[in-house]
Fold this sequence. Notes:
Layout: H1 3-23, H2 36-48, H3 52-65, H4 70-85, H5 89-102, H6 109-121, H7 132-147, H8 152-181, H9 185-198, H10 205-219, H11 222-235, H12 240-251
Helix pairs in contact: 2-3, 3-4, 4-5, 4-6, 5-6, 6-7, 6-8, 7-8, 8-9, 9-10, 10-11, 10-12, 11-12
Amino acid sequence: MPRALVVTLLAALALPVAGCASSRTKGDLPYVARDVGTLYSTAKNRLDQGRYKEAAQLFDEVERQHPYSIWARRAQIMSAFSYYLGRDYTASIASAQRFLAVHPGNHDAPYAYYLIALGYYEQITDVTRDQKITRQALDSLGELMRRYPNTRYASDARLKVDLVNDHLAGKEMEIGRFYETRRQWLAASGRYRTVIDQYQQTTHTPEALMRLTEAYLALGVPVEAEKSAAVLGRNYPGTDWYKHAYDLLQKHPMTPVAPLKPGEQPVPVGTKGTPSVSVEVDQQPTSSSAPAGREARPNPVGSGGQPSNTGPGI
């Protein structure tokens, strides 16, 4: 065979191999058949060395090469843990959810739920950003406490729930202050009411009550403003928020309105913007053909018991 033809054939055979190599995702481990003990031990060594991504990939390899071994089940949860330590929270949540889908009754299931909740919790952003992840963290923590209330993971979850609620209340306060700076008092008061009704155990409640007092005064409902200030003084008497609310009420005292006398109109006749003459309802006119002193009545039946021809429309 000519030398040029041999070189051409070798180059053509090399192209598919190069294409397969380039199509593999960067960072994937090449498939090398190894026994389960070697794979798991290598993954554990990588984890101890702080090489979390490599450890997670090796734990996944244990599950891929030996799916029916007793080590595969343990490798799944260790993979989720390794991804969590490597701050790859999306992969950690996915791995833990896959473990729960296959082994829902395993004794490591509470820890898998805990890893899912931590994965969302660690992604919580400041209150100026969207809080979808925060609500997912709250739902995951609640699911853990509901399913396994007596575990040590649930105890830690209860503490984190308080922090998550405080964060969500902070988001509502941020939006309420945004509306208040634009003098949109009704929208602002709705956000403050949400904090008081749903997150009353958080650190934002005193400020929400004071801001609600401001909003009610601006809306012209001083009675509701006094109620908010009274709740604030009863529960947080020594705070600066109560002092500020008290000063606001002193500057805008409520003027009592005398009760209306019998027959008195709420708005006097002649007030600007109202009709100057009261309008009375017209009475139905009586028939002019009716004799004096006798009530005019229609005659529904004509002579001979037949309907009259003077009915409506005729």
